[in-house]
Amino acid sequence: MYENTILKLRVLEEEARSSGVLVIGDFITLHEAWRGWPRIHVDYEKTRSLKNRYVKALLVHEATHSILHGSPLYYLVSISPELIETYGFENALRLVYTASTIVKDLEVHGFLVRQGYIDQVRAYMEFVLEKQFEDIGCRSLLENLQLAKLISPLVYIDELLNLEKKLPSSCRGRIDRILTILKEIVEQEGNLDQKTYRVLQRVMEVTGEIQQ
């Protein structure tokens, strides 16, 4: 647990460098297993003002990651040369990282619902709607991937919670298409690499950044 965001990011960046990790996310709570065992990092500066039910939902979410993804194997995803050629190395890293977190979040939401924690998934979605939709956009592939990550709980709880009203006009009309993609990913077999690239390919089609 970190008293402020700056300290959290400094520690995570040092850990990432020493473990050979190329991309990290700046989340209020974060799970990783870079050193071979699961760890959960909590940003106290950002959690102290949240509703208790939101903090609990975030912690349950990360604890589930520790159960399902508590090995370094879940942080090894290949980067295709074509993706690097099209988007550049750093942008390709961000795209693959975000797509892989979508796959893992879907696994977390599904696990929680099957175990009877649907209220935690609902609270997690409510937190996302209240706190994380302010700057969302749908212009680029990365923004559409970020939108897919944010709405991933809806694959399992099947309620929009006035979602369309909270989105900018550029995003409206994309929710159903992205949810269809996520539901397809859940139903298909494959490892993390395969599912990550399926997400990328399908969201590229929605974004219109490749030729149909």
Descriptive account of the structure:
- By secondary structure, this protein is mainly alpha-helical.
- The protein contains 11 helices and 2 strands; from the N terminus they run H-E-E-H-H-H-H-H-H-H-H-H-H.
- The chain has helices at residues 5-19, 44-47, 52-68, 81-87, 89-114, 118-131, 141-151, 154-157, 163-166, 175-187, 192-207, and strands spanning 29-32, 39-42.
- A two-stranded antiparallel ribbon has the order 1-2.
- A hairpin with a 6-residue loop joins strand 1 (29-32) and strand 2.
- It is globular, with a radius of gyration of 17 Å.
For the termini, the CA-CA separation is: 47 Å
Integer average pLDDT: 89
Low-confidence stretches: none
Summarize the biggest pleated sheet: 2 strands, antiparallel
Which shape, going by the Cα principal axes? globular
The structure class reads mainly alpha
Residues in β-strands, percent: under 5%
Counting DSSP E segments of at least 2 residues, the number of strands comes to: 2
Percentage of helical residues?
Answer: 55-70%
Number of helices: 11
Instruction: Describe the strand arrangement of the main beta sheet, using strand numbers.
Output: 1-2
Helix-strand pattern: HEEHHHHHHHHHH
Radius of gyration based on Cα positions: 17 Å
Short description:
The chain is mainly alpha-helical and about 210 residues long. It has helices spanning about 5-20, 45, 50-70, 80-85, 90-115, 120-130, 140-150, 155, 165, 175-185, 190-205; strands at about 30, 40.
